[in-house]
User: Fold these one by one.
Assistant:
Number 1:
Amino acid sequence: MTLCGVRVPMMASLIVWCILWEIVGRMELIFLVPPFTGVLSAAWELLHNPKYLDATAVTLRSFALGMTLAIAVGVPLGILMGRVRAADRLLGMWVNMFVSAPLSALVPILMILFGMGTATVVVTVFLFSVWIIVLDTRAGVQHVPGSLVEMARSYGASRWQLMTRIVLLAALPEILAGIRLGLIRGVKGVVIGQLLVSIIGYGELFELYSRNFLMEEFWALTILLFLFAMLIAEAVGVLEKKIEYYAGVRQ
Amino acid sequence: MKTTMDGVAAMPGPRHGAGGTLLRAAAAMGGGMLLWRLASIALFCGLWEVAGRVPISPAFPSFSATAIAFRDMMADGSLPAAFAVTLQPLVLGVVISAVLGVSAGVLMGLRRGVEWVAAPVFIVFQAAPMAALIPLVTFVYGIGLTAKVLAVCMLALPVIALNGYKAVRNVNPSLLAMARSFMASPWQRVVKIIIPDASPVIFAGLRLGVSAGFIGVILAELLITPTGIGDLITYHRSIANYAEMYASIASIILFSALTLAVLQRIETVFFRPEKQGA
Amino acid sequence: MGALHRIDPAPAAATILQRPSALDPSAGDPVVQVRGITKRYGGSVEALKDIDLDIPRGKLTTLLGPSGCGKTTLLKIIAGLLEPSSGEVRVNGREVTGPGPERAFVFQDFALMPWATVLRNAAFGLELRGVPRREREDIGRHYIREVGLAGFEERYPHELSGGMRQRVGLARALAVKAEVLLLDEPFSAVDEQTRRKFQEDLLRLVAQEKKTFLFVTHSIEEAVYLSDGIVMLSRRPGRINRIIEPAIDRSGSPDEIRRDKHYLDTVEEIWHGLRDYVD
């Protein structure tokens, strides 16, 4: 949008929304909405609160573990499904189902299987993110141009070379796209897992703040979480752009 | 080939390319043979059965035990009753999100001003873990139906709106030029070109909205107050009736998968005749 | 004011210019008058520079040039789909400010609505003008038959081959009864066999419909085979390089024409001309 001849970036409208929030907060219409500045100062304090830092450490660890697992399993599984027809047919149905299934329903099961702790959250992150990584990797592998594979074969590439030097690299744009989507889902997974377990990490804090009606802290936590989610998505987005050039060459 | 934000249908090409990886994968598999599908199901159930018989955990019932529990719960009516309860906020929430989301999305696509004001909000809501806000709705709307409908809307609305927005923004420019060269009025442009051309992606967004709605309603039932399926899950868990608990969870996941498959089918038949039989 | 401007010196080969140029502004009754058209993109890239051109009525004129010479840009400016940076276009003496009912455009990528049948696509221009359904469908059917698609009225675009889709695009342009048909590389997405058949059909339509056709192509053979006049554009910034009137004798069969010495010489002539300034 342009105002007075100056291009205003789209995301700038978020500032307008924050100002609106401040005004609504100042009018004290609903106790649910404290002034935005109050939330910001709460966020600042939160960043110096050891309890928050502990919770962040716990959350980040579960997230990182779950994501590592999801990538370590998802990418090879996707390549397998992309290259081997039988594997694709046997697993495709389930992967497609789980990618859009309400996996939050599985968390109660995880809680009894893995206990009320980090393990459950790690598995939740894994389950939320792995399927989209599998699907995107599979799609990427299937779209590797046949001529490229034939070229490698004609120059005498071994199976392993073909996989690592051609297939994996050619499918990289899709794999990264899958990982980006997986990360966003993983963040949702870590939050949902912790909310349902509710005695560790951010879940515990959310529980604490909402139970005691500490609205400023509640919103501060939410905003920090949202920022984290956006930052992660952006970071992978930047990485994706870097390799996008050869996705463009391909079509 | 591109995949976009989580859940938002991707646009791989200038033409109707929505649904992205998911859709393409599903379409490729849709043509699969029945035999493979049966083998696939047998494999899954077999693994489940073995894992349950070993057992890997006392809280992990075998497939057969779960299936029997499912049959019993269908027979005594507890499962159908729970579904009836769970579906209320789901359907209400999805319908509300569909109406609001599609209108907001189309408006954002058509009007720069609306886009500037609203699109960033939806983009943030789409990428952020909205589930964190579910405890909040209980403050305002208590623990009744309203709160659960709101939970569904919170998760479903952003996907639907963003898909509508992208659908309108990605309308085939060549068709727009065609309409202009034949002197279509602005209204004709919207009604005869933009809406029909965007509708497959809009519908794909609705499907993703339903998927998000399922997550929302289950979270609401687990976090706000146990009702419907959430109640069955919580109750059977508390009395260690694991087979019944698993049956409830499996049935809601299966139900959502079937619903989404039906929607996908509708999408192919009505909006993408060019992809049928492919 | 058109008389003040003169077309760029166009030293067309004497062997080819056998009669006074109908494309010269001094010749009578041009339908489309292009005067001093310049088109810049993003302020710096000059796609077209000082184009002066008259398109004679009832003829098929071709804009020929290498890719990137701005021929499609020029066609779209005449169609009113693009605005020139400077200069003006007049159609029947009236200045072009946007698309008009006297011009119809045929798109390179067909621009068919995938959700509409062949009939609805063909009659779409009339639908937009509010012509009652009965009437517009009758007209649509007529032109679908005219372009050789009878029997396909209820099919959808995705059920047709590329060549057939472009025939729908042509039927749609004919159905609005415009005087000037603007065709933007209509055969570029069509295979060679279909293309030849299509060219022959187009010649028949030109003779029969008595309309003005303005045609963009990068194929020399196609231009010579079809055109009454060929406007050659040079590479960026697009300028009129020269104007040729092939005057091919079209009384013979298509194959005879394609073996005709005059036809082959003209193709060769243009080839040499193009090579001179490509190097």
Number 2:
Amino acid sequence: MNHTALQYVLAATLVLPLLGAVGALLPPPPGLRGRDPGQAVLRHGVTVTGAVLVLTVVLAAGFDHDHPAKMQATTDLSWIPALRIHLHIGIDGISLPLLVLTALLTFLCALYSYFKPPEGPSPKAYVALLLLLESGTLATFAVLDLMLFFLAFEMVLIPMYFLIARWGGGDRERSALRFIVYTLLGSVIMLLGLLLIGVKAGTFDMVALATDNGSSLSHSTQLIAVLAIGIGLAVKAPMWPLHSWLPDAHTAAPTTGSVLLAGVLLKMGSYGMVRILLPMTPGGMHTFAPYLAAFAVVGIVYGSLACLWLARPGNGGDLKRLIAYSSVGHMGFVLLGIATLTRTGVNGALFANIAHGLITGLLFFLVGAVKDRYGSTDLDQLAGRTGAALYGRAPRLGGLLAFAAVASLGLPGLAGFWGEMLAMFGSFHPGAGLSRGAYLTFTGIAAFGTLLTAAYLLVVVRRVCMGDRETAHAPGALADVRGYEFAAWTPLATLTVVTGLWPATLLGLTEPAVRTLLGGH
Amino acid sequence: MPSLVQSVDWTALTPVVIPAALSLAVLVADLFLPRRHAPLLGWLSAAGLAAALLTEIPLRDGHRTTFCQTGGASCSYAADHFALVVQALVLGGALLTALLSVTTDPRPAPGAAAPTGEYWFLLLSSAAGGALLPASRDLATLLVALEVTTLPAFALVALRRGDRLAGEAALKFFLSSVTATAVSLLGISFVYAATGTLHLTGVAQGLTHPPDHLGTLAKTGAALTLVGFAFKLAVAPFHFWVPDTYAGAPLPVAAYLSVVGKAAGFSGLILVTVVAFRPYADVWGPAMGVLAVLTMTVGNVGALRQRPGVERSAVRLLAWSSIGQAGYLLVPLAAASSADSPAHEIGTTVAYALMYGVVNLGAFAVAALVTRTAPAGRLTDYRGLYASRPLAALALAFFLLCLAGLPPGIIGLFAKVAVFSSAVGARHGWLAVIMAVNVVIALVYYLRWTALLFTRPEQAGEPSGELSPAVVPGAGPAPALAGTPAGLTAAIALTAVAGLVLSGAPQLVLRYAQGSLL
């Protein structure tokens, strides 16, 4: 496909959800009214997200796979000359998979909501917010201007806030406020770092800055910039100890909100580190990398221990909260991979990013389904004395849950394996100038973390899927996986297997791009 | 001997002369107009303000000056870019206030005979003062303009007769303002004594090398002059009159004060600091930084502490938030002291003020709309506004998010980015970090309000899974919902469209942050 067509496809990908969000608020045109207004607008959501998914697939098909390191489908228009802000968008091998993942997950969420409308106020606003969220996330991965990156980063806050605060459960208002205050504080501090880079280097253009490789920034500037930007991104990722907003947000969020939060929003943090910090401030990153790695491995162990505690009988652990903590652990691997400053590690991080999006997205969908059936996600209530016996009562659902759990613990052959393996492998041979000894310790701790991860996930599988069918505490008969649930989950499960068996599909895209980003390293 | 008669360039003066002349015309017309035609005066005033705005177009090259000393280079009136932009803000703000007032009549009750002509006279003369202020280039004109802007405002605040709160508010406002003026006058007299001139550029020259024995006098004078202007801008610790005054004033007047009062205050402050007291930049620069930090923190924390159930809490919140926003306006001023081209940083303040003006007036317009059905003006009255008036709720949400600086309020976001950028560029990292924390604090209360708009109107607020409620029971007297006055609708529509256009093309205001204005 030629360049101009790709340009338009990319621009349409970003603009379509925005238009769709506006459209969702307008009354449906005659002929598209459907059964009732709610159904019509949810169908509108499916149509728009579906169209966006098609566009991203076209984008992936038209992408020049021989040169994934090159920015493709680029458009560069001057927008606000006063602040030197350009409407500069484009994709390379790093952003393309994330774009497709975002479009896919949002589409699946819209599809899921169509058949199972969210509990809460008007679906109109729900669809508008979902689309707004999608356009913000897509924009984050496609923009090539630091200020636009910040804009896109901020754009997801309001929709996510309202999704949690309006359609969530439990302590939703408080959790939503906590989510937005934490992330905004982080992102405003990030803005200061971005401005510092922009002021010192004289441009906000991410391609120019990446090519420049930090040579126009003094070391102290780089240190401050990495610290400021790093804090903002670390809150989003989230990195221990800045993660404390995440479990509450996940617990309170509706199913689709959790899926998107874990599947896509967290990736904005790690993507920013790879896209901004690694190439633009290599010197500062080199200084801070060991600290990042240390926080990352603490996060891995901390997340796993928290999960183990939640999974134990009698602790009243909430399944959603448990998966949220497991996200802290998994994102720890991503951060560790980035902190190695090696091609292996960063590729692993990017791979783990996608894998986590697929697997955790699936897990949140499944837990949502469990909640629909049992009316609770409290492990103790679910499991009763011997276990929830999902295998016996709803075998397909139980099987899928077990599949997602073993994928999450990193079983070789599934998507979860490669990213974490590569991250640890990168940590085993860290980048030039980094203390080998320290990183070997980190590798060891991370490896121990994988054991803990396996432990709690197996406990969860045992308590939820197994158990005595007759004694299991459950209301009436359980419906097994329904048609629309299959439709929403199969793509995720399939992709988990495909990327697990054939990691080259992703690594072939990211490897050349990472090599370019890391410059001489 | 050269002629002592100055030639006056009346074209340059039109943005000031039109409101001034019109104010007198309205006052006279009110005497002869039959009572039933009274609303005509409002529309006449609005048209006059719009005409004054239009007369700026031929002046836009920004090179006109008048009231110049014969033979000398110093002029008392300059229609440069800075003056024109601030005049546009003042006149635009007055125009929107007029649109709001056409409907939200500040008279206490239908029967009470308060002459409307009086109201329009006061509004127009205050606007004339506000338009004169940014163009004045000597300290005397500056002070006169400032007084012309504020004196009618006292009367406007007190217009809600029979309201104890309004009287108290006006008195508070009056006393603090008079003190400020007196202090300023004292300061100006000191500066005059030390430099022998009142022209801003002359003062700057004089202060560069003041006579040794007058150095202290000059410094004291500069400080006192600044104090007076800081008062008008409601900079902390001189902010205490704001919440009571706004809450006590008729709503359009509060809107007017929050935008035009601020514009007058900050343009005066800019002229005095950046032009006249330029030699003392190393002193007022850090002082402005400290004031900025104090002001934004006090304002935002004050806004955060507003309890939603209290009467007039909506306007009180806007009042406190306007104090916080004034803090952001000062940040580029602090940066200007150490910048190579102070005029460049000033542009950022102007750009931010333009954004703030549009958005804040919009918020006040929606507040005026809601007050029609819920006169108590509590924040809780906004609960479920989306269900009863979706467009107004969406507009208010947009305005609040602009003030908070979050998308979809893109213009608010980039105006803040410009302010941050000027702080970071001037190596005022501490200022930027404190402002960052303030932005987060501000988000909490703006967001709370925004969320309230979309909450279901029932007190329980529990979602029951049903679709959007069509009619809100008990949200206010239903008859008043019908027939929103044209002026109010126009004001909300104008500000909303302006906000949206600016969000799409922020360059329209941010270009002032780029070039030098003065």
